[in-house]
């Protein structure tokens, strides 16, 4: 199974991980990207993620297919939240099962890096001072000018 999901609701890592179970897999690796309370020396109160869903789902699925061709894995899943997220919420979850740990680690890293680079999902940080700002995938502010 290879699956990319856009999720408006809280992510449940245990439920997501169960989808990746396989008797042939000796390794399972997951990554959780969580909302933190500071970025670029500013206090963050919450995040808002927006996605161009139709394209995001196509590109996300393409990344997972590429990953399965590049690495010897059994299953892979990537779930990304959309909507408003609180501090501590899981914003993105990636899980990979494989016969061996090297492939699982490498594939998990590949998936998160490619998703951040290629999938049209935008992050708007809301700050304690009442301002907000859109960010590039590397968490630097977008210059509105």
From TrEMBL:
<keyword id="KW-0501">Molybdenum cofactor biosynthesis</keyword>
<dbReference type="Pfam" id="PF02391">
    <property type="entry name" value="MoaE"/>
</dbReference>
<comment type="subunit">
    <text>Heterotetramer of 2 MoaD subunits and 2 MoaE subunits. Also stable as homodimer. The enzyme changes between these two forms during catalysis.</text>
</comment>
<comment type="pathway">
    <text>Cofactor biosynthesis; molybdopterin biosynthesis.</text>
</comment>
<dbReference type="GO" id="GO:0030366">
    <property type="term" value="F:molybdopterin synthase activity"/>
</dbReference>
<dbReference type="InterPro" id="IPR003448">
    <property type="entry name" value="Mopterin_biosynth_MoaE"/>
</dbReference>
<dbReference type="InterPro" id="IPR036563">
    <property type="entry name" value="MoaE_sf"/>
</dbReference>
<dbReference type="GO" id="GO:0006777">
    <property type="term" value="P:Mo-molybdopterin cofactor biosynthetic process"/>
</dbReference>
<comment type="similarity">
    <text>Belongs to the MoaE family.</text>
</comment>
<protein>
    <recommendedName>
        <fullName>Molybdopterin synthase catalytic subunit</fullName>
        <ecNumber>2.8.1.12</ecNumber>
    </recommendedName>
</protein>
């Amino acid at each position: 199974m290879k699956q990319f999901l856009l999720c408006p609701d809280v992510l449940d890592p245990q439920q997501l991980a169960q989808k990746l179970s396989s008797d042939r897999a000796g390794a399972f690796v997951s990554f959780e990207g969580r909302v933190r309370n500071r970025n670029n020396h500013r206090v963050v109160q919450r995040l808002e993620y927006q996605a161009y869903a139709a394209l995001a789902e196509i590109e996300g699925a393409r990344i997972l297919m590429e990953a399965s061709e590049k690495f010897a894995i059994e299953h892979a899943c990537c779930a990304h939240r959309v909507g408003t997220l609180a501090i501590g919420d899981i914003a993105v979850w990636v899980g990979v099962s494989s016969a061996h740990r090297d492939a699982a680690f490498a594939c998990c890293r590949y998936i998160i890096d490619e998703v951040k680079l290629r999938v049209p999902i935008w992050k708007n940080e809301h700050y304690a001072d009442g301002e907000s700002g859109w960010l590039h995938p590397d968490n630097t502010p977008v210059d509105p000018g």
